[in-house]
Design a protein that fits this description.
Elements: H1 15-35, E1 40-47, E2 52-54, E3 59-65, E4 72-81, E5 88-96, E6 102-110, E7 121-123, E8 126-137, E9 143-151, E10 157-159, E11 161-170
């Protein structure tokens, strides 16, 4: 009986070819990043101390709207830790227009599926999930819009939420 020997392939790479490959990769990434036009007009986030969000703590953002004709999506960006104890997250969102008109809503952010698997994109022990808050909306007046985010869970201290943010981007043109 004859046995097959495992095939071993050895490669060698000199220092210069490794440097050229690295430089080539960096140039490719730079071209890819600058070649695409971003739809994001505003993005900000707050990192929560010790990944704990206290019910009394309000996370606030301000957006200076200058275009009243464009349609926008308002997205809440959440980064939770792998040991976050719940599958969802309730959020109270209060916004105020430049003229002082208030708008409030409650948003459920589902972070895990029914089997406990995190839905967001992972990076180590953190999971990032964008949650659409407002779709195809306009900012009818120019000026500063205030957004206040308040955790709406029953716990006074919500552990495992690492970062909360808001992103405003131009809505995709409907085909």
């Amino acid at each position: 009986m004859q046995y097959l020997k495992p095939l071993t392939i050895q490669t060698t790479m000199n220092k210069n070819s490794s440097i050229f490959k690295t430089i080539g990769l960096m140039i490719t990434l730079l071209c890819a990043m600058t070649g695409c036009e971003s739809n994001i007009v505003f993005q900000d986030a707050a990192t929560l101390a010790e990944s704990s969000w206290y019910k009394k703590d309000i996370v606030s953002f301000e957006y200076d709207a200058q275009d009243t004709t464009e349609l926008y999506n308002v997205i809440i960006d959440i980064r939770n830790e792998a040991d976050y104890p719940y599958k969802n997250f309730w959020l109270f969102v209060h916004s105020t227009s430049p003229q002082g008109i208030d708008y409030s809503d409650t948003l459920e952010c589902v972070l895990a599926d029914n089997f406990g698997r995190w839905i967001g994109k992972s990076s180590g022990s953190l999971y990032a999930l964008p949650v659409l808050f407002l779709s195809n909306t306009r900012f009818p007046q120019k000026g500063i819009y205030h957004f206040d985010l308040i955790q709406g869970m029953r716990s006074d201290t919500l552990k495992g939420i690492h970062e909360i943010g808001i992103r405003i981007e131009k809505a995709e043109a409907k085909q």
